[in-house]
Amino acid sequence: MYYNKFKNEADLPKQVEEELDDTDGGDEQELWEHHRIVVDKGQTMMRIDKFLMIRLQNASRTKLQAAADAGSILVNEKPIKSSYKVKPLDVISIVLPQPPKDTEIVPENIPLDIIYEDEDVMIVNKRAGMVVHPGHNNVSGTLVNALAYYLRDNNFTKENNVRPGLVHRIDKNTSGLLVIAKNDIAMTHLAKQFFQHSIQRRYVALAWGNFKEDNGTVTGYIGRSAKDRRVFMMYDDEEKGRWSITHYTVLERLQYVSLIECRLETGRTHQIRVHMKHIGHNLFSDDTYGGDRILKGPSFTKYKQFVDNCFQLMPRQGLHARSLGFVHPRTGKNMYFEADLPPDFAGVLEKWRNYNKHVLTKHEDE
Description:
Layout: E1 2-6, H1 14-22, E2 32-38, E3 46-47, H2 48-55, H3 61-69, E4 73-75, E5 78-79, E6 85-86, E7 91-97, E8 114-117, E9 121-126, H4 143-150, H5 155-159, E10 175-181, H6 184-195, E11 200-208, E12 215-224, E13 232-235, E14 242-254, E15 257-264, H7 271-278, H8 301-313, E16 319-327, E17 334-338, H9 343-365
Parallel strand pairs: 10-16
Antiparallel strand pairs: 1-2, 2-7, 3-6, 4-5, 4-7, 8-9, 9-10, 11-15, 11-16, 12-13, 12-14, 14-15, 16-17
Helix pairs in contact: 3-6
């Protein structure tokens, strides 16, 4: 039997992976797995849920049935029911949430900004500074700790304590929306949508410089820097990174900075931050990718003081996950949510607007 598991895991020690990824976003592909199986010629007919339980580790019958219900199990490129009986040479493709790591999460009563909730999903507006998942240097105070407490009476959460309902992630110092699954069907259905890039995600970012075009697309392979493993960069070689796609649109031009909207097709670690630096538009106040220093503008002392004040008001990258759209796992309806800019981001944006309105106009008049 031919068996292939598409994960493209970076060649790093496990502890290093956990420390780097789980403390600052992490590649979303690491939250689910894709299996492809070609059935043996001599295979006798067998229910596919039973067949996959034998072939796959940590795949319970409940999870497999949920995957089938979500349309995440394909045989010869067609979705099937869990009662389907496999035949010789069938080609099976399945998307499943990654099994959680063997680490117990301590529930913590941390306030959450929940903007929507039903029996299947939650939409959380994460504040900047909150780590999504515990890691080597962040064992408490994370979004997962908060979810473990909030959903403590949920049986699905108890079974998936290490990653309660987590389908995707955003960086520690990025604010904005995350969707949380509350049961197996929702988890599997949402994992499939992320895997197929059908989730609609739009971010608002403040970037250095004035973009030449109103719209653009950045593509390339993102991988870890050989000089600093905490930092990611763009490569032309697929052996050094994972394929990534970001579409951007300029929303507002503010002379030395620009407000842009980014639409993700992939969910790589630090994707928007790496892409914007790659094209010469580092995100404003991003201390990891060089945006925390003055990259555009005059050398006037007052201008330097103005930018420093902006850095102090928003001492993190200007990036906010503003909107999120997906198909509801139970109803099949299109769901869409938006979150306003948080006060630090909104305050810095208003400062730049006032600077352009008053200071630049004054220079032009002179």
